[in-house]
Specification:
single chain; elongated; 29 helices; mainly alpha; 57% helix; 691 residues
Length: 691
């Protein structure tokens, strides 16, 4: 019995001896670091040329080895207890701030990163860990081109990873007080030698490890409040956020990319409480949006809208402009802005809902409302043109639902009530619609492209606000009058003054009329043939040239139109639209129909196109010598079949060719909305439930 007890005691003593040796070695290495500051007189020797990096490496290895030897998981060994109780991290942070010897901050950042990453025991809950972490964060990330950017981004990577694993750590890391008073700053500046001397006096080679109960009681008192307030009541700055934002601006591509990934990791925390804290008690959203606005305001006012529209391939992961594209003034600034906008959009997509909504609202308020809106409404045409082009390219890049919602509210407003014809433009949307019909053709085209981009976004309110709210209830159908049995009953093309027989003497042999389009099954709807022909007949046969080049009719556009129709159908499917219009109520009183300002603008522009090209087409044709041959030559030039040469009436001739193709496109779009059941086009059937 006594022999067994003796063996157990011997095993116990043998098990503790390595711990004592580890602590002695750990203290010895720390003592070697502090002695350097007492004994060294050379202030110019870089830290990496001293024994400090080696001693820090030995201390790290001892901590990791000690933890692996612990019998029970979660226990703190003597060396870790010593590091915590003697505030070693606090002292190292102060030494790093003093940057003595030169390069010491780099060594401290590396040591912090490795300790937090390699020691598995939770450390950031301890006051003597997260307080120096906060101080160390405040030392970097604010000065562009810092020599320690690489170490800083590695440090933030570890912290963001720890927060992702345990969102409760967010309050410990983000809670950071501003320095209060100059006395505190003065005390910190003289701390290195004072703390080093205190360590030399207290440390002994065989000092016992601190009592574990002491550390437990001390750690239990380190719980932090959700907010830390300054004497004036303001919320303290969060240095992790400001450090990350600063590193995101780094000229070193890999540093900037890693910092953006770290911030993305931070905002995607799963905890509701952590996300709320991030929004309410940190400068996360304001800092991200402030940088976005700064980049926008740094854009040169002379940017060419064509260059803005042509710049593609900008991503937050690769914010620089592609090298194969042509250079233009302001290209790098534009690429930087679009790259950060894409990053904001990605942040909003991946972030927790609380952060996502707050960040989207901040972008809308600070960029859209405060900066873009005054430019869109400015009297300067250049300001309107540039801001419209920039907004269009932003819409093209935008993917996040939350930011799309804010952009739609900004552009179209929240009121979806139908407008009246006499309403004056009070909203931004009304002004933009008026810009579509501006005296400046450049502004008109730029604004039409903006609406084209907007209509391609998957948001029901866009279509409803611009179009559907004016069509609900079918006020465009006259009450009490039967619909015509045939569309031809409402047209009398033979009496149209523009389609005269006098043109037949011009020498232009009329081509065969286009083959009739297959009609749909009789179900009370207007036959698709009549709808298609109504577009094809807008241009007289005598002014058409496509048949002379063995081109077919409108069916050359049918495949593209059908793909576009399927894309639109897929986009609106989730909105639950009815498959057929509701029946008219015969007792409902008839009300005046107004198509709305957007459709009115489009119809007005299209009607003017017809007036300016078709209105006097037949008369102008007869005044152009050798019109058939010249028209055919212009078509070949536009198709690249023959080299271009200047001709008389060239603009008019080009307009005739373009008008013919435009009408064929309209006919193809009308046709695919009522796809035939015959196999001649080999078109796949649209998905069930699409409108």
């Amino acid at each position: 019995m006594l022999s067994r007890l003796g063996a157990l005691l011997q095993e116990a003593v043998g098990a503790r001896e390595p711990s004592i040796d580890l602590l002695e070695a750990f203290v010895e290495h720390w003592k070697g670091i502090t002695n350097y500051y007492i004994e060294s007189t050379d202030e110019n020797t870089p830290a990496k040329k001293t024994d400090i990096p080696w001693r820090l490496k030995q201390m790290l290895d001892i901590l990791v080895y000690e933890e692996k030897q612990q019998a029970a998981a979660g226990e703190t060994g003597p060396c870790l207890e010593y590091l915590l109780q003697h505030k070693i991290l606090e002292t190292l942070c102060t030494l790093g701030k003093a940057e003595y010897p030169p390069g010491m901050r780099q060594q401290v950042l590396q040591f912090f990163s490795k300790v937090l990453a390699q020691v598995q025991h939770p450390l950031l809950h301890y006051l003597n860990v997260h307080r120096p972490v906060q101080k160390l964060l405040r030392l970097g990330g604010t000065v562009p081109g810092s020599l320690t950017e690489k170490e800083e981004v590695q440090f933030t990577t570890v912290l963001c990873s720890k927060i992702q694993q345990d969102p409760a750590l967010l309050t410990y890391i983000l809670e950071g007080k501003k320095t209060i008073g100059r006395k505190k700053a003065s005390r910190e500046a003289t701390a290195p030698l004072r703390e080093a001397a205190s360590v030399r006096d207290k440390d002994r080679p065989h000092s016992k490890a601190p009592d574990s109960g002491t550390c437990g009681a001390w750690a239990s008192s380190t719980q932090l409040p959700a907010e830390t307030e300054e004497p004036d009541g303001t919320i303290g700055e969060s240095s992790l956020i400001t450090t990350l934002i600063g590193l995101c601006k780094s000229k070193k591509g890999r540093v900037a990319l890693k910092a953006r990934e770290n911030l993305l990791l931070l905002v995607s925390v799963a905890s509701q409480a952590a996300a709320t804290y991030l929004v309410q008690s940190s400068p996360c959203c304001p800092a991200v949006v402030e940088h976005l606005c700064q980049l926008y305001q740094s854009l040169p006012s002379s940017l060419d809208p064509a260059d803005i529209a042509a710049l593609e391939g900008i991503s937050w992961r690769l914010p620089s402009a592609p090298s194969d594209e042509a250079s233009f003034p302001g290209k790098e600034a534009l690429a930087a802005f679009l790259g950060w906008f894409d990053y904001c959009d990605h942040l909003i997509t991946e972030a927790h809902t609380v952060v996502s909504d707050a960040l989207a609202k901040a972008v809308a308020e600070k960029l859209f409302v405060e900066i873009l809106q005054p430019q869109l409404l400015h009297v300067s045409e250049q300001s309107v043109l540039t801001s419209t082009a920039l907004l269009t390219v932003m819409l093209r890049q935008l993917c996040s639902p939350a930011l799309l919602r804010e952009a739609v509210a900004f552009l179209l407003g929240m009121d979806q009530q139908p407008a009246a014809p006499e309403d004056s433009p009070r909203t931004l949307c009304a002004h933009l619609i008026r810009h579509c019909d501006h005296l400046s053709d450049e502004i008109s085209i730029a604004t039409l492209r903006l609406f084209e981009e907007l209509l391609q976004k998957p948001h029901e309110q866009i279509v409803r606000s611009l179009i559907l709210c004016h069509l609900e209830g079918r006020p465009y159908v006259a009450r009490g009058s039967p619909e015509p049995e045939s569309y031809e009953d409402t047209l009398d093309l033979e009496e149209d003054p523009y389609f005269t027989d006098s043109f037949l003497d011009s020498g232009f042999q009329p081509s065969a009329k286009p083959p009739p389009a297959p009609t749909t099954n009789p179900d009370g709807k207007t036959a698709v043939t009549e709808i298609v022909n109504s577009f094809l007949c807008l241009v007289p046969e005598e002014a058409k040239t496509s048949a002379f080049l063995e081109e077919t009719g409108y069916d050359t556009y049918v495949h593209d139109a059908y793909g576009l129709f399927q894309e639109c159908s897929s986009r609106v499917t989730p909105w639950g639209w009815p498959l057929a219009p509701p029946p008219l109520d015969p007792h409902e009183p008839e009300r005046p129909f107004f198509e709305g300002p957007f459709l009115q603008m489009l119809f007005d522009r299209m009607s003017r196109i017809l007036e300016q090209v078709i209105g006097d087409l037949m008369q102008r044709i007869q005044r152009v010598p050798q019109f058939p041959g010249k028209l055919l030559l212009v078509r070949r030039q536009l198709m690249g079949q023959v080299p271009g040469e200047q001709l008389d009436h060239q603009t008019f001739l080009q307009g005739v060719v373009v008008l013919e193709e435009f009408c064929k496109e309209l006919a193809a779009i009308a046709f695919v909305k009522f796809p035939p059941h015959g196999p001649h086009l080999h078109l796949s059937k649209p998905p069930e439930g699409h409108v």
